[in-house]
Amino acid sequence: VIKCIVIVALTVVFLFLIFYSTARVRLEKVLALRHPRKSWKFPGLVYSDWAEWRVGQRIPPIRIKKTLKAHGFAKNNPPENPREYSLVGNILKIRIPPFDYPDGQSYSGLVGIELNRRWRIISISDTAGNYLSAIRIPPILLGRIHDEDLILADYARFHDIPDNLIDAVVASEDHAFWRHGGFTVEGILRATKRNVAEGRITQGGSSITQQLMKNLILTPERSIRRKAIEFAWSIAAEFMLDKKTIIELYLNQIYLGQEGSYSIVGVGEAARFYFDRPLEKLSLSECALLAGIIPAPARFSPFGNPGMVKRRRDNVLDDMVEYGFISKAQRDSAAACEVRLKRGQRPGIKHPDYLELVKRDIKQALGEGALYSRGLTVFTTLDPYLQLCAGEAVDSGTAAMDSIAFNYPVQAALVAARVSDGRIVALVGGRSDNETEFNRALDAHRQPGSAFKIFVYATAAASPFRTDGGNIYSPSTILPDTPSVYFVKDTVWAPRNYADEFAGRITVRRALERSQNVATVNLAMGLGLENIIALAENCGIESPMKPEPSLALGAFEVTPFEMATACLPLPGGGMKTEPSTIRLVLDHMNRPIYESPRYEKKILRPEAAYIATHMLRGVINYGRGYDVRELGLLRPAAGKTGTTNDEHDSWFVGFTPEYSAAVWVGIDDNSRLGLTGTKGALPIWTQFMLAAHEGVPYSDFARPDSGLIFRWIDERNGMLAKAGCPVQIEEAFIPGTEQTRVCTVDHEAEADSIEALRQEILDDD
User: Fold this and answer.
1) What is the largest CA-CA distance in the chain?
2) In whole angstroms, what is the distance from residue 563 CA to residue 134 CA?
């Protein structure tokens, strides 16, 4: 008998050890889900990028206010709640909410920032007087991405859950929770008596720990076998988890109601749904009401049964008094409160156009459906401040054009990427007052017109490095600009200049600055259309292009996204990083699983990239893009206007050392807009760039260390400048292509002739 008892005992111990080890692994996986961004059904969560402010950084007040607004902060003096701030004089106070960053948690709480008269940060300090070198402004949640299984659940940490709510749940659900080891004999005896009387399993007598294990690990099956397993799991959980962890997990997984097809899961989501308030703001009365819903959320729904809910709330308050959690006076005060409900709005999607690109990037990187079912958290490269500025530029720009365009309503798209790494920082697919879901930034295929000349002239800049014996060009090479005819598939095609003005002979630089179509087509034919296509494709143009003369004038369709990102190699020294919206992806256990690659591909020699950029600067400094300067953008910038035949589409594509951006303006049905690139897209581009560079230190396009020869030339004729040349620029040349002829124009006589012409016009008037 003793031997049998020993064998049985050893067998039980052995089986328990096996069960315990299995349970530990399973529970460790459950614990990995404890994060404020996790839902129990694992939707994908997508965040913007965060902002970081450092001592010594200059942040003008307009950027301070708009950055905080874009990150969801409200102005309040003094800031009492998370995501509030005040700016009084040169003292900025911010109450930063906690946020778990991928590299660890940054400081949260109230911080004071002192700025000098030039709005440079002098110091950052916390409430204890400790000085910080930097702070982070937390990202915003762009959206929860679900499939057909729709669940709303925000995870709340133990320290974020009000004591009154924890006490109310414990008092009404399991008053011995803090003392027992996973179960209570009282609960088991009560349930056993009821089940024997009924002849079936009708009551579980479960402790909070048992309920947690049933919901997380087991099935809802009602049987003696399942109850025995639940009993074993609850004991294992009490061994491995502390009480705070158990109650935290429990309060985040309980079902608390329904909003249409969406299930309300967890007390955090319930606080939003029933009271439209954050969890930490709930009163004692509201905490008791939520606790009263737990046994039967459908039956005790506050919106459907307010009278019954009030009785349930009062019962919970009575339980809290009985078990010593609150006093009789507190109970009476809470019970006297009316049940005030305010249905919270279901969290929506922020910046859906940008989010659409994120979905595409995730699909390409991790496969179909990954964002919908694997519980991924995506930190994107979206800059909320730049996104806000982009939206404002599009909205104000299109509104101003509604009254002067040929048709209505005017639409626009804007895409901006960071030059240093190719990350997409802002994307607007249309004006905010338009209800269409069409994403013009990604899906509007429209002719770029003269904006495509960027790639024609970049090919020309790279021509000195050709090895096939083809034509070589420099910025001072003379091009013919006279009426020309081309035969394309037995069809005669004759390109025209704007207003039918021809220069006769014109330099490569001047042809770009003045956007001369005929000279550009002549240049393209000399370069070879296949070479232009090859460069454009390497830069990132994926839309199909045909080797026909009209290609040089942008007679094919492309998206704003392609144009913005394809320009990146020019300010990037000829190198291109694959554009991406993804900064980092974490799996449902908070482990990094994907980071967008930072590899660079050499597209152009750095000398060629610099020359192309230098010529495109001339478009803004001397040419058709001069309105950029008139509108106030004075820092180094390069770009190109674009206007299609009959003014159906208006473009401006350009870049600074920091950002590349493309703006398209047009009518959705492709009817005539009636605005050139200068009058349509350019003002929107400039407004965005002015805001984007607010407070950004001045920088210039980097010159290659070697491989270039610089000469001062007359900008209008490309010859070496002499003392009297009115417009002189320092031109860059590949060795062997530099200009050697000195300007022969008599500028004094030229000035006299211009003055005589002016006087003649005045006399005629």
Assistant:
1) 131
2) 36
Pairing relationship of beta strands 262-265 and 151-152 according to DSSP bridges: parallel
Question: Which tokens go with 686?
Answer: 């400039």
Whether the pLDDT of residue 458 is over 70: the answer is yes
Beta bridge partners of 45: 144, 377
What CA–CA distance (Å, rounded) separates 638 from 622?
11
The burial class, CB within 10 Å (0-12 / 13-18 / 19+), for 755 is exposed
Cis check: omega of the bond before 409, within 30 degrees of 0: yes
Distances 189 to 115, 184, 258, 425, 450 between C-alpha atoms, Å: 68, 9, 33, 62, 84
Structure tokens at 674: 């009636």
Helices 529-539 and 453-462: crossing angle, nearest 10°? Answer: 110
Reading the block at residue 242, the tokens are: 């502390």
Which residue(s) pair with 242 in the sheet?
A: none
Q: Is the peptide bond before 61 cis (omega within 30 degrees of 0)?
A: no
Q: What is the pLDDT of residue 279?
A: 87
Sole residue written with tokens 């034509």: 471
The enclosing H or E element of 96 equals strand 91-96
Quote the CA–CA distance of 138 and 82 in Å, as a whole number. 11
Q: 28: closest CA among 178, 231, 208, 245?
A: 245
Higher pLDDT, 294 or 192: 294
Name the E strands within 266-423: 377-380, 411-418
Q: State mean pLDDT over 616-644.
A: 96
Task: Describe the crossing of helices 224-240 and 2-31 by its angle, rounded to 10 degrees.
Answer: 70
Amino acid, res. 751 = A
CA distances from 89 to 61, 93, 303 (A): 10, 11, 47
Query: Distances in Å between the alpha carbon of 689 and those of 377, 388, 398?
Result: 30, 12, 16
SS3 at position 592? strand
